Amino acid sequence: MREAKSPAGVRRVPIHSDLKNLLTARTRGKHPESFLFPELPEVPAGVARERSMPLSKRFGRYRIRVGVDERVEGRRRGLVNFHSFRRWFITKAEHAGQLPHIIASVVGHEHQGETLGTYWQGASDKALRECVEAVSLPKPRPLNRKLAA
């Protein structure tokens, strides 16, 4: 099992059924401990950056090129970034009637309070799967190859 930034980073998360073909192709013939995106460079020990940084930067350049940006005066960073996917999922899951503590389990947020923060032993695999499947993924649009480079 790989390390994570926090204890909540190591958890079971069901993959949406719409992504089955993509995940099957990316994991075919690979060891269970293999990275899902092996093309991302390993980060040398002691370097303070994450393995996903090149992908995050590329996404940032792409979204700005296609005009997806939201800025607040006086702030260096825009409001649209990789975490926008998490915000989108959390909002859509809540709109689909999913319980907040189940959504928190899917996205790796800690539970607050005595009951859930101390005594709860976690969501069932069934509840996690129902939460993920309750969100309808957007249908992919054809990719303009000029913009993707």
Topology overview:
Blueprint lengths: L19 H8 L25 H13 L17 H13 L4 H8 L5 H7 L5 H9 L11 H4 L1
Note down, in words, how this protein is organized.
There is one protein chain. The model has no long low-confidence stretch (mean pLDDT 84). The protein contains seven helices and no strands. The chain has helices at residues 20-27, 53-65, 83-95, 100-107, 113-119, 125-133, 145-148. It is globular, with a radius of gyration of 18 Å. The protein has 149 residues and is mostly helical. Helix 3 packs antiparallel against helix 4 (100-107) and helix 4 (100-107) packs across helix 6. The two termini are 33 Å apart. The chain has a domain at 81-138.
Which characteristics define this entry?
149 residues; mainly alpha; 7 helices
Secondary-structure element pattern, one letter each: HHHHHHH
Radius of gyration: 18 Å
Structure class: mainly alpha
Q: What is the residue-averaged pLDDT?
A: 84
Strand portion: under 5%
Tell me the helix content: 40-55%
- What is the overall silhouette? globular
What composes the largest sheet? none
- The termini sit apart by 33 Å
* Number of DSSP E strands: 0
**Individual helix count:** 7
Task: List unreliable stretches of 5+ residues.
Answer: none
